[in-house]
Structure formats: C-alpha cells, structure tokens
Amino acid sequence: MPSDLEIAQAAKLRPIVEVADQIGIAPQELDLYGNHKAKVHLELLQRLQDRPLGKYILVTAITPTPFGEGKTVVTIGLGQALNKAARRAIVCLREPSMGPVFGIKGGATGGGRAQVLPKEDIDLHFTGDMHATAAANNLLAAMADASLWHDNPLNLDPLSITCRRVVDCNDVALRSIVTGLGGARGGVPRETGFDMAASSEVLAALALCSGLADLRARLGRMLVGYTRQGQPVTADDLGAAGAMTVLLKEAIKPNLVQTLEGGPCFVHCGPFGNIAHGSSSVLADQMALRLSEYVVTEAGFGADCGAEKLCNIKCRQSGLKPDAAVLVASVRALKMHGGAYDARPGRKLPEDEIARENPEAVVEGCRNLGKHIENLKLFGLPVLVAINRFPADHQSELEAVRAQALELGARQACVVECYDEGGEGGLELAEAVVEAANEPSQFRFLYDQQAPIKQKIETIATRIYGAEGVKYEPAAEKKIAAYEAQGWGKLPICMAKTQYSLSHDPELKNRPTGFTVPVLDIRAALAAGFLYPVLGQIMTMPALPSRPAAQGIDIDEQGRTVGLF
Fold first, then answer.
1. Which of 173, 217, 408, 520 has its CA 20 to 30 A from that of 354?
2. Domain tally, the chain
3. pTM above 0.85, yes or no
4. Together in a domain, 200 and 339
C-alpha cells in the first residue's frame, strides 16, 4: 500500500467552495486560503441560530501506546462512513502541532484511506492559527518583562510570573532558561522557560470561547503572576488583552477542509489532552452541528484524559451534549496492557511480539478497556467499541476483544478497517452509531461544579482513574486555599497527567489499583476557565528524539514534500 503522504498527494481534491456549498455555507461566508482551505466567518452561526442541532458523536480511546492507536483514523473513517451511508456528517478535529510532526508521533491528519486534506498544509503551517496563538502568548510574556524593566509599576513579583513563552517545535534547550541577561539594557534577569504552543492557555481559551467578545474577556482574565503582596496580576492589568485579541481575530474562525472522500471537515484549535482539555473548538462544533445530521469529534488521548475533560469542561462551557461515545481500541495496545511487550517513546515497537498470536494477553489487557467503558457510562453515554484493525492482528485476538467489550458493557463492538478501506471499512460502526445516537440522551456531568476544589479532584481520581485516594503536597494545599479565597474554587478541574496510564504514573499499565494520586501543584487557567492540578512531571516542552522525524522530511525534484507521516 502507498504511504499516507503518497495517498494524500494522489487524491483529487474538490474546490473548497464546492465542499462548503454542499453543507450550506455561502461563498461570502468564506475566506479562501487557496483552492482547498477556507476560514468560515462567525456570522454563519448567527444565520443558523434557529436550526436544530445534529447528533454529537464523541470519539475517544483506551490508554494508548506512545505511537497512537488510530483514533484520528477512526474519527475520519466514521465521518466518511456516515456520508457513504447517506447520513450528512461533518468531522471536527484538532489542529496538529509541529512538535509531534517533526518529533516522534508524526502528523495528525489520519492515515491510509481515512485522511483529511491537504495533508502537508494541515500538518505544517496550515492557516497560521498556531503562529497567531504563539504571537499573542509571547506578546503577553514580553509585556510582563517590559513592565518589570520599566520600574515595575504593578509591583509584580518576578518569582511569581506564570506566563511562559511558547514555540511550535520541540526544543529541549528552551525548557528552562534565564532571561534578561546582558546588563541594565537587557531587562530584569529571571528564571523561566518555553512551552509548546499547543500547551498555551491562549489556545485553550481560543478553543473554548463562544466568539470574539468572549475571547477578549477570557484573555483579559489570563493570570500573569502576583504582586509582592500576593494579589493576582492579569493580562488586563498589563493592558495586553486587546492586542492579543487582535492577533487572534483571524485564528478564531474555524478552518474548513475535506476528507479523502470529499466530505467536509473542520480542523480548528489544538490544545493538548494531557494538560489542557484536548478537543477542537466550540465554534467549529457549533457550526458543524447546525450544518449536518451527525458531527464526529475527537478527544485527545484516552477516555480518562480528553473525553473526561470534554464532558466536564467543554460541555459545561458550551452547552453541548454528546449523544454517543466511540471507544477506539487496538489489539497491539491491549497486548501491551496485558503484559506481552513494553512500548516507550523514542524506542522502536517490538514488531515480533506484536505479530505473535496471543489472545490471552489481549483478554488480560481488556481490563483497561473495561475501565474506559465504565468511565464513559458514568456520563450516561452509550459506548460503542471500535476495534481498529492492524495488519498483524489475528482473528482470535479480534474476536477476543469483541467478546470482552460486550461482556464489559459496550453496546456494540465493531472491527474497523478505515485505514485500508476508507468509509467502506466503517459502515458497520456507522450503523451502530446512528442507532445509539438516536435514542434519548442520558448525558450527565461527573461532579457538581459548585463543589469544593478537593472534592472535584478526588471524584475524578477515584471514579475515573480508580485511585484509592489523593495526597496533596504542601504547595498544592496552599494554592487550593488561596484559590478558594479568590473565588476561583467553582471552576471545573482539568487534571494534568500522563496519557500513558489510567493513573498518574506512566509505568502503571492496564487497570492499576491500590495507588494514591499525588497533587504536586495546582494552577489557575482563568482564560480557559478551569483549574489544573499537576499530578506528575508533565512535559510541556518535549525533546526531539535521537532520530527525529524531521530528518526524513524533504522536497523532491518536483517541489513536492516527501517523508512526512
């Protein structure tokens, strides 16, 4: 089979105005970025405000290996399958970050016959949204340092500044740095560092906002640090929020592209799912739900990360309610959880162990699957398991997953072959989704937002992760008390934790028990509208591996990109 990039480059794309017209978007509601990409004006929502909403389908996954299990492939393939079955469907995805593209994981546009196009554009600069996010974030950081340098009129404590600069690539040398060197003309020296652009609170706020005015208000609340007397200093206090909003006035518009089969897809915003809420923009989802019968959206990493946050954070802030959940599982990930092999970032997958028939390890690994099914049902969602088939899978292993999924409470379990067959390979899943989504919604939140901070943290830790309890470090205890006193205790909780385990510890595979979750710190993301407890060493600036993907990317004699995956 050709590579993903070769398939993408061989595809005959429809003009994006044609894709837009198919779903009811007028030419004057588009800003074209060439023939195959467009931004959609927010005025569309006002025109469509009286239309009923379509069905909202959440795609999530079991605890993944470091190499991904094809959740994006299944999301795109399900959208293609629904359209093939004459159901009007739109896919909503996050924008890729160039850190993974040039690092280990590669792009985030799907693969095989289930891709969104144009692949090279989306995986790289796209329409400039990530650069606009970085510019707005870094303007705020620069204004904070400038305020310190100009006699510090806000009495900002340099040691309290939480706003770090961001860049859209993995650069380990920037993880921890000292700025302001060079004498009196070089600013005020202080320790700081860079994060990935996708981890910026600015991007989380952009993804959750309901419009330009709401974005301006959110950015104004963004916490920069504290005065020496312990009072919060915000972007509005620095006078930065207005200019930040201006930098984002084009980025706020959702991006319209197409699937490999010519169906519509919104790709907008890309907050990480381990430290932020990990799903595409509210604005894109709202547009799609008024333009189609079914909207298929993806939440980052496992159901304990992106799906929990989508339900408890995104749905609270937007009013959206999922009608069904698709839980993606793969034989190779279940084998890992069952103890058949180990998989770590930067290391080659053990292909021999993956290929060896081992239904016993699959069954053992299904304890992880069962916990994720249980978690999704806590939100009142019907759960359909999508078994994403890989070439090395054995029939006995696929049947073991199907049987276990049904026994563990899934409504249905379907083998999905969208990578090889596109929409055709997801028709069984599409039929099951339609049936499940058309039943009355039983959606509910996991916790009362008005509950104390600790109660919300402990509810997530015990009910979603399966922890015995929570231990708070002194720094976290102090901040929790301060946040409650500031009136921030009623915000929802966005746990910052590893994606490689149901627990806080990436070494604890499958369905761990008997562990206590440590809360090392807690931070306030006031622009995004949540608090995020830190449960471990969460990497916001990864390093490039010894052989980064960037080494394989080049331009051929015809000027085409090669080596992108």
1. 408
2. 3
3. yes
4. no
